[in-house]
C-alpha cells in the first residue's frame, strides 16, 4: 500500500458517500480499535461505507489494486479478523439501520448493526430475532457464523431465521441470496462467515418475545461446584425448549445482590431465562435453588432488551482476550471436574468459563441444512482468558491453553467457528466437519482469488 498514489486514493474517496480514513487522520485510531485489545493492526485505508454502493466501490477498488481487504461489522471477532495491516477495511459500523415489518414479522437488518440495534427496533413491536447474549456484538458476524443465544432453543439459530441476504461478492456485484436465488451462496453464508462477500442487508424472521421476560442469576459457592454442575447437567436434559440456563464459573464480581464478603470468591452462577412471566418460571427457579447453598440471586421480570445487556459489563471492549472453545454433546462427570479444577485457578479476576446451552430447536435440522453443521451439540463451552495488563499475557494464554487441552478428551471434537481465536487456523476444518468440501467448492465459484481472506478462511484451493 505504500506505493499507492495519493491521486488514486483521492479518486477512490470521491466514489464513496462515506468517509475514508488514513493513518494520522482524526478518528483513525478509534476506527482501528476492536473489541479485543490484543489486536493492534494498522490498515492503510478505512472506508466507512454508508450503503451498498460504497461497499461495491470498495470491493472493486481493493480488487483492482491488489489490496488486502478486511470487513468490519461489530468488531467482536476474538481473532481480530475485522482488520488487516496495510490494506483496506470495509467498515460497516455506519450501516446500522433496522427496519421491522410487524405484520409480516420480518426484520431488515443492515450489515453493521449490533444486537442492541436489532433488539431496540424489534422489541418496540414485542418481537425478536434469535441472536446472542452481548448487546455490542455485531449481528452480521454473529449470524454469518451461526449465532446462538437465549432464544435459540425455542426458535433456532440466527441462521435458521434468515430468509435471505443482500451480498456484495468478490466481483463487486450486488446479489440477493435466498432459497430461490443463489441457493448455494445462501447455504454458504449460513455459517461460512465472511468468506463469500460483504452482507449489506439481512432479512430475518421475527418471533413474539417479551417485551417483559423472566431472567436472572442464581449464585452458588465454587466449593459446591461439583454437586451444582452435576445437577445443572441433569436439569438441562429435561428442560423444555423455551427455557434456557447457562453456567458461568469465575470469581464473583461486585454484584449488588451478593454480600461484600462473597466478592472475589469462586462461584458458579446459573443464568436463567424464560420468555414468560415470573409464574411460569417459578418451578425452574425453585428447582435450581435446590442445587446448593444460594449465595445470592437476582431473578425476576425485566425487559428482554435489559436482559440482553446484562452481561455487557463483564464483556466490555478494551480488555486483552484469548479465548478457546469446545463443543459438548454431553457434560460428563470428568468434564465437570476439569472445568472446576481450572475455574479454581483463574489467573486474573476477569477470566471465566462459560457454558452456553444450545440444543432444542437449534438441533432440529440435519447437519447439511446450513453451512453451520453442529446439530447435535448441547453446550458450547468458552474459556474466556481475559486480562488488563500485557505483563499477564503469558500466564493467561498458558492457563487458557492448558484448560483447553485438559478438557479436549471429554469434548465433542468440534467447535463453533465464531469462537476460534487467531492461532487456530488448523481448527477451521473441525468447525465445518462434513460441510467443509461443499464450502470450498462454493468459495471457488464466488471468490476464486480469495479476496475475502481476513476471516476464518476457507481457501478456494484447499
Ligand atoms: P467483526 O470482528 O466485525 O467480524 C467478525 C467476522 O465476520 C470478520 O471476519 C468480518 O469480516 C465478518 N463480518 C462481520 N460482518 C460482516 C458482514 N456484514 N458481511 C461480511 N462479513 C462480515 N456468538 C454467538 O453466537 N452468541 C453469543 O452470545 C456470542 N457472544 C459473544 C460475546 C462477546 C463479548 C464476543 C467477543 C463474541 C461473542 N460471540 C457470540 C461471537 C461472535 O459471534 C463473533 O465474535 C462474531 O464474529 C462477531 O461479529 P462482529 O460483526 O461483531 O465482529
Structure description:
With 462 residues, the chain is of the alpha+beta class. The radius of gyration is 22 Å and the shape is globular. α8 (225-236) packs across α11. β8 (162-168) and β9 form a beta hairpin. It has 14 helices and 18 strands. The two termini are 27 Å apart. Strands 15-12-14-13-17-18-16 form a seven-stranded antiparallel beta sheet. It has a five-stranded antiparallel beta sheet with strand order 5-6-10-8-9. It folds into three domains: 8-91, Uridine Diphospho-n-acetylenolpyruvylglucosamine Reductase, domain 2, CATH 3.30.43.10; 98-209, 2-Layer Sandwich (Uridine Diphospho-n-acetylenolpyruvylglucosamine Reductase, domain 3), CATH 3.30.465; 212-419, Vanillyl-alcohol Oxidase, Chain A, domain 3. It has helices at residues 6-15, 28-31, 52-64, 115-123, 139-145, 152-155, 183-189, 225-236, 278-289, 304-307, 333-343, 393-407, 428-432, 436-446, and strands at 20-21, 45-48, 69-72, 88-91, 98-101, 106-110, 127-128, 162-168, 174-178, 198-205, 207-208, 212-221, 244-251, 266-274, 296-303, 320-328, 352-357, 379-387. The chain binds flavin-adenine dinucleotide. Flavin-adenine dinucleotide binds at residues 35, 71-78, 81-82, 92, 111, 132-134, 137-138, 140-142, 144-145, 147-149, 193-194, 198-199, 315, 418, 455. Residues 35, 71-78, 81-82, 92, 111, 132-134, 137-138, 140-142, 144-145, 147-149, 193-194, 198-199, 315, 418, 455 line the site of flavin-adenine dinucleotide.
